[in-house]
Design a protein that fits this description.
Structural class: mainly alpha
Number of strands: 0
Organism: Pedobacter caeni
Number of domains: 1
Radius of gyration: 20 Å
InterPro entries: Acyl_transf_3_dom, Acyltransferase_3
Order of helices and strands: HHHHHHHHHHHHHH
GO biological process, one term: polysaccharide biosynthetic process
Shape: globular
Keywords: Acyltransferase, Hydrolase, Membrane, Transferase, Transmembrane, Transmembrane helix
Strand content: under 5%
Helix content: over 70%
Protein name: Peptidoglycan/LPS O-acetylase OafA/YrhL, contains acyltransferase and SGNH-hydrolase domains
């Protein structure tokens, strides 16, 4: 998304969620697990859910108009090229570091991770902490062109497909996942990280973009900033105070799954239409964290365990030091590693387009 069409409020939310997940992990590893009623406990689960929603929304915004009939094959090809160059290099790098730092020996598992194929074959066999969600994203990307084509040409089939994916998720949360067992139990976790348990969130992002851009919901963009801000505060307040008892499993089963999913979707939609400002300094920081959010998400475990295991830092100071180290290393990786591959993918697509025009 270029600077003219970029929606910076989505970057802000993406950066906030990446930072929230980072803080959740650091506090959990150093202090202990949080209850499902604690705000960090909720963000530890639904921060990732919001990532999925934002991913669907952002890709809709970029590609809905680009996927046109005369150049559809080229556009789809370029979509996959750009996604591979955006996702795989950093995923591979972090997976390799984690693999050898942990002294693993399953080379097949490493190969599945550096190619991203684990998301399609065995989503639970991720190597880097949190990489299961990246595997899910890769599965969503595989369906994305089909989903957008349905939306453009067969809208009833699109919404039918979305409804089926939502019903499938309800089956996971109501029948397959057991609220009496911890979410971290292997069989439970294997079910939870299944991409078809999360797909409805990605599709929800596409629906948000479509309904607000193409229908009567466009009025949300014209609301006064103070009204938009008030609605965001209300949604966040409900998310924080709504009571939940039990472990993490209670956040992703039963009615709680429905309630927190709706709140996540509403929050993402409100940030999509939000045009307010938090001040130049805060805006700059939030934009930066949004830009480097992928690096923050994958690098923060490495930063923490580097300080803990190699430098033997085990006091509470490890949390703020890890946060600072994560931000610095994420910026450097984004600037000198991620951006290099993103530009390479864009350049490759440009060259192929030029050849088509000759």
């Amino acid at each position: 998304m270029d600077s003219k069409t970029r929606i910076y409020s989505l970057d802000y939310l993406r950066g906030l969620m990446a930072s929230s997940i980072m803080i959740f992990h650091f506090c959990t590893w150093q202090i202990g697990e949080f209850s499902s009623s604690h705000i960090l406990g909720k963000l530890g689960i639904y921060g990732v859910s919001i990532f999925y929603i934002l991913s669907g929304l952002t890709l809709y915004k970029v590609y809905y108009k680009k996927f046109n009939a005369p150049t559809l094959a080229i556009d789809v090809k370029h979509f996959f090229i750009k996604r591979v160059f955006r996702i795989i290099p950093l995923l591979s790098l972090v997976s390799i570091i984690t693999f050898f730092a942990g002294k693993h020996h399953d080379i097949e598992r490493l190969l599945l991770n550096i190619t991203g194929l684990f998301g399609f074959i065995a989503p639970e066999k991720y190597v880097a902490v949190g990489a299961w969600s990246i595997g899910n994203e890769l599965v969503f990307y595989a369906f994305f062109p089909i989903v957008i084509i349905l939306l453009k040409r067969h809208i009833k089939l699109f919404f039918l497909f979305c409804a089926l994916m939502m019903v499938l998720s309800l089956i996971f949360s109501a029948y397959l996942l057991n609220p009496a067992s911890p979410l971290g139990e292997p069989n439970q976790w294997k079910l939870y990280v299944n991409p078809f348990n999360q797909f409805y969130l990605f599709l929800s992002g596409i629906i948000i973009g479509y309904l607000i851009d193409q229908s009567k919901f466009a009025f949300l963009k014209t609301l006064e900033t103070r009204t938009q801000s008030f609605l965001i505060i209300i949604v966040v307040f409900i998310l924080v105070v709504i009571p939940v008892s039990g472990g993490e499993i209670m956040l992703v089963t039963g009615y709680n799954r429905i309630i927190f999913s709706i709140l996540s979707i509403l929050l993402s939609g409100l940030f999509y239409v939000y045009r307010g400002s938090f001040g130049s300094l805060i805006n700059g920081f939030l934009k930066l964290t949004g830009d480097i959010s992928y690096s923050i998400y994958l690098l923060h475990p490495l930063c923490f365990f580097f300080l803990q295991r190699l430098l033997k830092i085990n006091s509470m100071w490890i949390i703020p030091v890890s946060i600072i180290l994560t931000y610095i290393s994420s910026y450097l990786i984004y600037r000198f590693f991620e951006s290099v591959f993103v530009k390479l993918g864009n350049r490759l697509c440009s060259k192929q387009t030029d050849k088509q025009l000759i």
